[in-house]
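Quick start: read one record
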Amino acid sequence: MTSEHISLRNRAASLSLVCNIGLTVLKLIAALLTGSVSLLSDAVHSATDIVTSGISFVSVRVAMAPPDETHPYGHGKVETLAGLSEAILLLCVVVYLGYESVRRLIHPEPVQQVPVGIAVMSASAAISFAVGRYVTRAGEQTSSDSLKTNGQHFMVDCWTSIGVLAALVINHFTHWPQTDGAVGLLLSMWLGYGAWKFALTATNELIDHRIDDDELENIKSILTADDQLLSYHKLRTRHSGAWHYVDVHVVVPREWSVVQAHDLADRLEKQICVRLQPCQVVIHVDPYDPAKAARS
């Protein structure tokens, strides 16, 4: 990983942490002034983002540590654990938000100082959108699962802010008290769906689920395009944080020298690494066996 990528990761993680702290404080103050449960729900959601941004801030640094004697495959799965912990935390918040929203639907309460809430949520939506786009792009450029998850949190926060803003506007003009609880319940359902997707992605990586279909097709296209390669088998892939790990057996002519086989394997490794960087590839060379070919 280049120094530019490391610097971009650090900047994105720091920015997300600072913005989450500022937005949470702003929303909590507005929630206390207005008494809005939907605004309080969004403030609690932003408070969890402080924790997740903190986890991301730490995890991207730990995950970038080079392999050592006790961790020969590096520390990439620290980011995966961070993503899973963020998802679990978000699921816990969803349960709380759902409970509060249902309670407010059954026992509605008036919202105070609505213009204050509208101003705060408008600013929150704009800031969350801008920061979310930046952090997500940084995660994609540096292949950081933790940053991509954090960026998604900001985009979710943008939509929840818009939802709360709509509820405050409707409440202001219609004076319908159930609006607050109804929007809060919808937001909790939306957050629950997002948390489930985050948890599923992290769990798949922890149990060494293969890489994505398009990435796998990239590897296969490289292998099949080489006219010196007779065939390949036992292709295995997995993720570990930002890294792709690939191992495969390739079949070469029996009369080839060790140097020829090595040159082919080295060429294929470099092509795959360029296509899926950062990537570590291990290629095992098998000589062509007519008996095995006949059985297959």
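Strands lie at 231-240, 243-252, 279-287.
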